[in-house]
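During the second half of the funding period, the structural biology subgroup turned its attention to how the target accommodates small molecules. The most pressing case was shikimate-3-phosphate, which had performed well in the primary screen but for which no bound structure existed. We therefore specified the complex as follows and requested a full 3D prediction, including the ligand pose.
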Amino acid sequence: MKNIFLIGMMCSGKSTIGELLSKKLSMSVIDIDYDLEQLMDMSITTIFNEYGEKRFRLIESTYFRECSKNDDFIFSTGGGIVLDSNNQNILQTRGISFFLDCNTTILIDRLNKQNQARPLYKNDEDVISLYNNRRNLYKRCSHHIIDTNALTKQEIVIKIEKLYNENN
Ligand code: S3P
């Protein structure tokens, strides 16, 4: 069975959908950001502050590369996973990748409601420019684009399950 990669912007639902899919498909989930926080015993924000974004990307990519050697996992990735060319290759070849696409109004609304700090979110314009800069990358790295704007979590899970079963 192939891996499932969930990619997209911060707050696009990757971790939540990953957990729900994990239960539905009886596959284990690897949440890259969560694992890095546990392994380094630091929040993502602290890793950014202590080491800078460049080092964070290196750590993130190294961990992702190792984990992606496995099969049958669901991966909830960090929003910036697509920035590295080796990661792009992994997303295209080591499983089936789903871009959870969501408009910036919804993303900003969710970010404002969360009290979890995000190092790359200082103001609403950051989300809009990150989205505009990355949208094509997410599309290029994914096999399927899931327009989540009007879907419930359950509908997103059903859609991914169907596409996965058709492609696996
Ligand atoms: C980032 C997204 C975050 C986290 C880090 C950088 C990004 O993950 O990896 O703050 O570059 O978009 P989430 O997408 O899970 O918020």
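Two results from this model are relevant to the next phase. The pocket of shikimate-3-phosphate is lined by residues 10, 14, 33, 44, 78-80, 118-120 (CB under 6 Å). The CA atoms of residues 10 and 62 lie 20 Å apart.
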